[in-house]
Design a protein that fits this description.
The protein is α/β, with parallel strands linked by helices. It is built from six helices and seven strands, in the order βαβααβαβββαβα. It has one domain: Flavodoxin domain (Rossmann fold). Helices cover 37% and strands 20% of the residues. Helix 1 runs parallel beside helix 6.
Length: 202
């Protein structure tokens, strides 16, 4: 069984989402020591954002030579995702949505014919056999019924993206209010870490 661990926070060891995603992976590896782990830090080895040349190459046009390494990186990222049985993602909220580094990764795995397709019934997800667990950190409170709920474009976006690929029940562990104050941060982190240790085994 293969586990793909993705981190996208720019805060390194100070990141709440990184701490929680690591705790999730530790929990799953303790339960299933034979898990084959692949780790990708999207801030240490960032993916380029899509360009016109990327899209042209995807449509079969000749790719410029300088795009070769990036196309190889795209293939590697997509294969990591396709090969994984479990995907764990650390996803902090930046300006009400996902980090651009994580968006660049999504652009490499949301690929027609690989993770979704269109047929007479519309879009069909092709990656529904995966378990996806997302560690979310948000500076404020964005849950249903909160004043800022309409600005929540992180969890809602990820739910939509994964559902489009056929993953209809992603799991979310959320640390909210981490910028409200030290006590709020400590409480949110403790709750998220406890939730991580209580996850169902792989």
């Amino acid at each position: 069984m293969k586990l793909l661990h993705i981190d996208s926070s720019v805060l390194g060891p100070h990141s709440v989402s990184r701490q929680v995603s690591a705790a999730i992976v530790d929990r799953l590896r303790q339960a299933t020591p034979s898990l084959d782990l692949v780790y990708r830090d999207l801030t240490q080895i960032p993916l380029a954002h899509l360009s016109g040349s990327h899209l042209a190459a995807a449509q079969g046009a000749p790719a410029p030579a300088e795009l070769g390494p990036d196309l190889a990186a795209s293939a590697a990222v997509l294969n990591e995702f396709l090969d994984a049985d479990i995907v764990v993602i650390g996803a902090p909220m930046y300006n009400f949505t996902i980090p651009s580094q994580l968006k660049a990764w999504i652009d490499r795995v949301l690929v027609a014919g690989k993770t979704f397709k269109y047929d007479a019934n519309g879009p069909q997800g092709l990656a529904g056999n995966k378990r996806v667990i997302v560690a979310i950190s948000r500076g404020g409170y964005y849950g249903p019924g909160t004043p800022a709920a309409s600005l929540e474009h992180l969890e809602t976006y990820l739910r939509g993206v994964f559902a489009f690929m056929g993953i209809t029940s992603p799991e979310f562990i959320v640390a909210d209010g981490i910028q409200v104050g030290p006590e709020h941060r400590e409480k949110a982190l403790a709750g998220a870490l406890q939730a991580a240790t209580s996850l169902q085994a792989a």
